[in-house]
Amino acid sequence: MKTVSISLLSIMLGSMQAFTPIEAQNSLYTLWFDQPNTSRSVPVWGEGEIAPDEGCTFENKDWEWEHTSLPLGNGSIGANILGSIATERFTFNEKSLWRGGPNTSAGADNYWNVNKSSASVLKDIRQAFSQGNNEKAAQLTQDNFNSEVPYDPEPGKPFRFGSYTSCGEFTITTGIPENDIQHYVRSLSLDSALATVSFCNKDTAYRREYFISYPHQVMVARFTANRKGSQNLLLSYTPNPFSHGKFKREKQDVCFDGKLDNNRMRYTVRIKALPKGGKAWTDKQGRIHVEKADEVMFLIAADTDYKMNFNPDFSNPETYVGVNPAESTKQWIETASRLPFEELKQTHCQDYAALFNRSTLSLNPNWETESDRLSTPQRLARYRTGAPDYGLESLYYQFGRYLLIASSRPGNLPANLQGIWHNNVDGPWRVDYHNNINVQMNYWPACPTNLPECELPLIDFIRTLVKPGEKTAQAYFGARGWTASISSNIFGFTTPLSSKDMSWNFSPVAGPWLATHIWNYYDYTRDLDFLKDTGYELIKSSARFAVDYLWHKPDGTYTAAPSTSPEHGPIDEGATFSHAVIREILLDAIEASKVLNVDGDERKEWEEVLRHMAPYRTGRYGQLMEWSKDIDDPQDSHRHVNHLFGLHPGHTISPITTPELAQAARVVLEHRGDGATGWSMGWKLNLWARLHDGNRAYKLYGNLLKNGTNENLWDSHPPFQIDGNFGGTAGVTEMLLQSHAGFIHLLPALPDVWHEGHLTGVRARGNFTLDIYWHDNNLTQVVVHSGSGVPCRIHYKKEEITFPTETGKDYILKTTNGKLQLVHK
Ligand code: FUC
User: Fold this and answer.
1) Ligand 1, from 56, 442, 502, 567: best to mutate by most atoms within 8 Å of Cβ?
2) Does the keyword Signal apply (predicted)?
């Protein structure tokens, strides 16, 4: 473990003698900047007229927010700390603050009654395919498999799909001049989820500490200095500009109660100031003044009236309303305000560290580099020149885990396209739940990096889609079960959108893909009660949908007709991607029904369908064919590689079990190239890891960091899109541990440059937790903790070893002369 560089520490220690310095932090776990952001005190929507685009353009107008802010979150509240001097500023989010849904002025019927009755057209489409009339099939699909709900807001009409929207912003003017600042540091420590801003002005050392507590559901901001009476502050809260409400004041507290204009969603933001020394008071504009305080702690709580609903009443516009945010926020503030800062901080750190500390990654720990002493943007810039920085590579792994904990905690919604962080009324792709790779990728690292509880919000979210998704399945496919489409919101939206561009808008396997996460969660945790009580029904009903969606052709095969491969190519009678997802959900359903020993007859049907699914095919370039016809273009460098789903995240293609198909997948990856958007590089990294090509996976990881990462390590599509962060973290895990092929595979894609290191606390399917150590590019030791007492089958290079395990016991394996041996049980 390395500590923060001597020079940085001495700056902090030297300048703040009489003052607690920033704790010596492990540079593996710290993101930091040495330049303040500007004191631009207005939000992106400005102070006057709101821009007509509501901020949905792809270029974020606030470069600093997107590149140099520090994100904090507790899964419900999110904030980005700008760390500016004269006016501190932080953007603010509440996860459920969304426009759209059944409570717009157009009413519930306008929201729910949007599925087209298209199922009867399927037979004409299939007949057209049989006659070779693909044009007709495509036309019929385009005309019938959209809806009337536009993805974009329409002038003068209530916006039904809606968007994730900002919960406003905070500014705190400090009266400190910007032109005389020394020793500025803005840092985020990933092992405690604390953001700190510290600097000196003349002989005063200032420090601000921020965290967002999950146990106490409050954001805490403390402003201190080494000189008494130095805190002269003015805190202002600016609400979402497309909302109306009132500020209520008490002595040192302010409460904003507002409603979004679009759907009347109610939200409350409460702020309490707790000064030591000096005084604090509020004014008519709802601002808080602090004068001559020695220090001040602000507590901020926020909530909306949104209630997650697994069984929405389609006639009730308020079916997702059920929380009184004025009450919930009051309780949180009251509880937190009885506790001193240190106790709030300790409770927060303990809660957070209990998750974060489960896994450590160390890469070439003895490698000394000047990068260790550089700020994160400088470090990244150096890495971009090709200089090795294994610390940065581990930091990125841990940053993904940090972001997942910060944006996805049980009891709230899953991480959206920007996790929980957004700075405008609307945003790219509505900052929604995108079901053709993005929301799924968000959860790739959850179980493998030992954060299974962070996946529970996704599982709850899937449950919200089932009832509306049954209507969609029925209307478009006459199918049992449920499905979703390309985009979802927090109000159970499962219908396709209005666009006739089927390449993205036709996505019926979105539901089955989501449902594969259910089995995956079970397989990692082996939580049988979960499978029995919640999981199995979701898997089974998704498998039923898949079976009914398939076309049983006269020749006896099953194909997905019509289908598409996102987001290019023709409307097809059997896109590889759709088949791969369907294979996976059927395999999951078969396994789950065996585990629970139920539905034997239906299992036979799933097995039968699986046996007769149109097979994977290899085309004229040796590539895994993307469509039913051999039309793949070797020049095609499209970012989507969904036809490789079976290789990753699925498990029907692997170099060990299906070497020819794995080779065909490799050809596809060669054609597509090693560039693309952030998330796409993140996916290719995972795919190369599954092909057991460590050096190529490493190249993709490097490309992701170099070409798809902002200065604050946020993934960039561009714009900022969080999926790539999660894909990156998952990919590193896949390089060092895989467990999808029926055994645990150690160091399956270790790149040559990672000579030495360890990865501890990671999970494998079967509920094993592993600590893996290697030296000179060879495995030295692995400790396997058995969480469920199932037999353990371990594979390393050409070695394989299987042994029975007992729940709660550890097993140590070592390699001697290349031989893997169980040395301790
Ligand atoms: C899919 C991708 C885009 C983007 C969007 C949110 O449509 O093709 O690149 O990630 O989702």
Assistant:
1) 567
2) yes
